[in-house]
Amino acid sequence: LFLGCGQFMMGIPLRRDGHLIYNESLTAFWMGALFITSGLLCIFSEKKPSKKLVTVCQCLCTVSALACLICLVRHSFSMNEVNHFFTITFNKMDSWLKHWMETIFYIELVLFLHSAVGGVLVTVMAVFSVKALRSTKTQAIVVIQKPKTEVPV
């Protein structure tokens, strides 16, 4: 949940910046929503476990892990673009613009690290949910029959 909120809130300065790659995908907002949703589903499936809820949790965690891989690629491209722009126009920029470009680069770096850590966490949650689903297949089914009532003689 905290990683999702952090991703979502860190995306706000990038959105206001008008950064080219970021505005196309809004990766921080999407990943924040995925992290929050998968975290809430994991909490709900722990509190009231059911096979359907654990299955949905596993599916969403798997989708979130794949989305993390996409985000890692997008953030690395974005950091490369900012770094390339920064090195080409370094002598022509004033100090305020240099500071702003460094800030954007470091926000992208933090979002990259959030995606990496979040990817590991949702992968672990997906593995745990797969293990939980497998354990329900091997459990013995116990049927308790109602005892027959005896008729008094």
Could you explain the architecture of this structure?
The protein is an all-alpha fold and 153 residues long. The protein contains five helices and no strands. α1 runs antiparallel to α3 and α4 runs antiparallel to α5. The model has no long low-confidence stretch (mean pLDDT 77).
**N-to-C order of helices and strands:** HHHHH
Q: Main beta sheet, described?
A: none
Total count of strands: 0
What is the terminal-to-terminal distance?
66 Å
Average pLDDT reading:
77
Query: What fraction of the residues are assigned to beta strands by DSSP?
Result: under 5%
Radius of gyration: 24 Å
Report the principal-axis shape: rod-shaped
Low-confidence stretches: none
What structural class do the secondary elements suggest? mainly alpha
Write the layout of secondary structure elements.
Blueprint (H helix, E strand, L loop, with lengths): L1 H16 L2 H6 L1 H21 L3 H38 L6 H43 L16
Helix pairs in contact: 1-3, 1-5, 3-4, 3-5, 4-5
Quick structural summary:
81% of the residues lie in helices and 0% in strands. It has 153 residues and is an all-alpha fold.
Q: What are the main properties of this structure?
A:
single chain; mainly alpha; 153 residues
